[in-house]
Amino acid sequence: MDRLTARWPYVRWLPVGLIVAATAADSATPPEYTSVPLVASACVLAGATLTFRGTAWTGVFALVVTLLANWHLGLLSSATGWGEALNVVLATAIALDVNRMLDRHGRRLATARSVAGVMQGAVLPSPPARIGSLLVAARYEAADAEARIGGDAYAIQDTPHGIRVLMGDVRGKGVGAVSTTATLIGAFREAAHHVPGIGDLADRLEQSLERDRAQNPHSDRDEEFTTALIAEIDQQGHTLRILNRGHPAPYLIRDGRTTELTATAPGLPLGMGGLTDQPTAPDSFTLASGDTLLFVTDGVTEARDPGGAFYDPVGLTVPDSGTDTPAATLDALADDIHHWTGGPRDDDMATLAITLT
């Protein structure tokens, strides 16, 4: 209710306005016509839009107005007049009960969202704002405004082998997808320090996911797999190596121009590697100071405009504000996507930006 009146402040005055309109209609029509049903509806509406106290006072106001109108029309001593007053009292009682139920539901929802927020912070913590010479920013937006966590995953780790990045998307739903996301990020944070090659790192992640699925057999995880992008930036910030396992390609933003870093031969998603014995080779790209790398999930690349056309981040223009930061890049991307879709999205959206200083 608070969110409703905060978004549309005029809603709080609608019940009173209906009561006044109904009273005016009663005064302008013959006695056999009554607007009490509209007054009763206004009372119930108050229960859905106002606080408990506001609902009670609206009911009192409606009852007083009804009694005064009936007195003016000479109906106060008739069964009709008292019947109308009783209707208002009953409508107010229903409104108060509705208000209590909505308030109870709101508190439960707030608790659930708080727990989900804590889970997201534990499973998908915000990365540090700076790692060595790199500036970092990340963002997660759920397609459902009430949701706080899903199957998208990202992580960045400073290792002896360079700065390593993981961007993933678990193809599953519910608690199983959250569990897989936690397993994926935990395995990456551990293995990224010890495995020298990102190809071997991908294999290690796949093995961890297979063990997790074998130890926690659930019917909703039988066909689960994870698209992943594993990147490595050398300590000097000169070279980027990328291994793509069925995930949307990252993007390089240089001098205001956005370029897709397409994989030469992308591999199968994690969890499907056993379908082929051919290893996936990483691609290498040269970096320069001032470059920004943009990693996304398919919530970005599959965002559609009202005509059904997919969004293409290559068209992204980052405003030159003199302070090009990864956070500014993600803000520009989010604004561009929201403008493109013109409404709610169908999928969660995780983004990670890294700027070389």
Topology overview:
Layout: H1 2-7, H2 14-28, H3 36-49, H4 52-73, H5 79-123, E1 130-131, E2 134-141, E3 152-159, E4 162-171, H6 174-191, H7 198-215, E5 225-233, E6 239-245, E7 251-254, E8 257-260, E9 283-286, E10 292-296, H8 298-301, H9 326-341, E11 349-356
Antiparallel strand pairs: 1-2, 2-11, 3-4, 4-5, 5-6, 6-9, 7-8, 7-10, 10-11
Helix pairs in contact: 2-3, 2-4, 3-4, 3-5, 4-5, 6-7
Give short descriptive properties of this protein.
six-stranded antiparallel β-sheet; 357 residues; alpha+beta; 9 helices; five-stranded antiparallel β-sheet
Give a verbal description of the structure.
The protein has 357 residues and is an alpha+beta fold. The protein is 44% helix and 19% strand. The strands form two sheets. Strands 1-2-11-10-7-8 form a six-stranded antiparallel sheet. A five-stranded antiparallel sheet has the order 3-4-5-6-9, with helices on one face. A hairpin with a 2-residue loop joins strand 3 (152-159) and strand 4. Helix 2 packs parallel to helix 4 (52-73), helix 3 (36-49) packs antiparallel against helix 4 (52-73) and helix 6 runs antiparallel to helix 7. The two termini are 47 Å apart.
